[in-house]
Amino acid sequence: xxxxxxxxxxxxxxxxxxxxxxxxxxxxxxxxxxxxxxxxxxxxxxxxxxxxxxxxxxxxxxxxxxxxxxxxxxxxxxxxxxxxxxxxxxxxxxxxxxxxxxxxxxxxxxxxxxxxxxxxxxxxxxxxxxxxxxxxxxxxxxxxxxxxxxxxxxxxxxxxxxxxxxxxxxxxxxxxxxxxxxxxxxxxxxxxxxxxxxxxxxxxxxxxxxxxxxxxxxxxxxxxxxxxxxxxxxxxxxxxxxxxxxxxxxxxxx
Length: 254
Hints:
disordered N terminus
């Protein structure tokens, strides 16, 4: 009983949700993109009434703004698996950087105690063995860093770029996240025995040929889905992704 209470207390700072679901079809844990926060994903609960949607709070943003952000992805994954109790049945969703984090969390859960998600849904990022096609940008000054990121990932929303005070607040976490990506080292491991869906925007720089290479990372079912939009395809048109999640996660219509 005491251990379970400790896990719940540790999980609380990592996890946010709009509402707990008494008997969800599945629990969906959402890992944010570079510079992103859990709040962007919590609104999905309005579209997924049978699913308990939980956003993962990373240090250095939101309610954890005063904490030092991670710059090493392996250390982040270790901390997540140490402190977060993933309640089955659960699915891991990750967008961009979050896709890589979700995959590594699934591998670490298996390594430690054989726990596995019911499914992985990985969005807008190629698999770990694919070399990065852009030069490092983490060392650039703020202006050049933002310009480079705008060209590669689609950048930050215009209203955020116009607010210099807010921009200065979120830049350290954004730069730390990019550092995690740029210093990540691929480690070959056996594929997961977990169904894997890969999603991307039709106008994103990461196309079907790159995303399809995730197929080698699972011995279970695999699907690749191209939806209308760019790197952040779900912001302007969330419904195609929500429809896909309802279908793949076994939940009823909204």
